[in-house]
Amino acid sequence: MSQDYEKIVEALRWIDKAIDYLRAYKPETKSMTINYKTRGAEIELVLYIPDNLKRKLRKVEIPAYQNFVIDDMRDESFTKIGKLWQFRDNKWIFDPTWLPSSERYLLTLKGKLSDDILRRIVYVQPAANKDRTEEVDRYWLRSMIRSVESIEKLWDALNVDEVSARVRIGIERYLSTNIPKELKSRIEVTRKWIQVGRSRDRQQLYKVWGEMRRMHKTDISVDEIVDLIDKLTDGSFFSQFVLVDDPYTLGDIRREETFKGTFPERMQVEACTCLTLKQPTAAGYLTFKKKDYTKSVEEKFSDVV
C-alpha cells in the first residue's frame, strides 16, 4: 500500500466513521464529488430503511467528525425531505419514524479537504510553454487523479469538478512596442510628473515641467490612454485571443497587477476540467493567438491618434 493511499485513507477516516453509524441501513453506492477550487467534498449514500427498521431503530446519532454536515436527504422519488436531521451537541440526530413512506433514501454529506490531501488525490502539472510560432504560443496542460486503483477501493465513484490550471501570459511587449511613440511619451512624462510632485524636488519638477511643455500635443488625454490600456487587458477582451482544447474550458481571465514601466506584464488565464475514475486524466493545449492580439492592439491605438 502506497504512502499516499495510506494518508488519503487516514485523512478521510471521518467518512467511514460517519458511515459506520448507518451500517444498519446498508449504505451503498458510496460516491464522492470534490470541487477542486473550493476543496469542498460531497458524499452520496443510498440507505435502505424499510418500515420494520424505522420502528426498531428509533434514533440515530452521528458525531460531526471534522465539522462535516448532513446537507440533504431524499426519498425514492427524489423528493427532498424537510429538515429531518437536527444538529445538537456537535452531533447529527434523526428519528427514522419521521421518514415518509419509502424504503430507499439518498443521503448527502458535505465536508472540506485539506490542501495536502487534495494534492494527493489530484495532480495538476504546472503549465509549460511547449510550442511557439510567429502566430501563437501554446501551453501544455495536464491533470490527473492519482492512484486510481487505490481510490477505487475507497469509493464506487469519484468526480473532481473545476480542476484548474493557471497560465501566465506575458503581454507587456505587445503593448509597449505597438503604442504610438507620442502617446507613450505622454504617459511616461505624466508618470514622472506625478512621482516628482510627491518628492517635492523643485529642480526635478522644473525639468519634468519643461519636458511636458515640449511634448508634441495630442487630442487624447492621459486618462483616455490609460483607459484604453485597461480595455486591452480586460479579461472579456483578452478571451477573444485565447482558446483551449477539450476537455478543458476557459475559466477566469484577469490582468496581473504587476507593471513593467507603463504597462502590465502578464495576463493570468485559467483552464478548467473535470476528472472521474472513468476519465481520470485530462490533457491539451491552451493557445494564445499573439499575432491576432498584436494586430488588435495596433488597431486600437491607431484609432486614437
Radius of gyration, CA atoms, in whole angstroms? 29 Å
Domain count: the total is 2
What would you call the structural class? alpha+beta
**Strand order across the biggest sheet?**
4-7-2-1-11-16-13
State the share of residues found in helices, binned by percent. 25-40%
Mean pLDDT across residues = 85
Strand and helix order: HHEEHEEEEEHEEEHEHHHHHEEEEEEH
Runs with pLDDT <50, length 5+? none
Subunit organisation of the chains: single chain
CA-based shape: elongated
Biggest sheet layout: 7 strands, mixed
β-strand number: 17
User: What share of the residues does DSSP label as strand, in percent?
Assistant: 35-45%
Please give the alpha-carbon distance between the first and last residues.
68 Å
- Count of runs of 4 or more consecutive helical residues: 11
Q: Which keywords apply here?
A:
Immunoglobulin-like; seven-stranded mixed β-sheet; five-stranded antiparallel β-sheet; 17 strands; 33% helix
Task: Provide a compact summary of the structure.
The chain has 305 residues and is of the alpha+beta class. The protein has helices spanning 3-11, 13-20, 51-56, 115-121, 148-152, 172-176, 181-199, 202-214, 222-232, 235-238, 290-304, and strands at residues 28-35, 40-48, 60-63, 69-74, 86-88, 91-94, 104-112, 122-124, 128-132, 137-145, 157-170, 242-244, 249-255, 259-260, 263-264, 266-276, 281-288. The protein has two domains: 3-115, Immunoglobulin-like; 125-305, no CATH class.
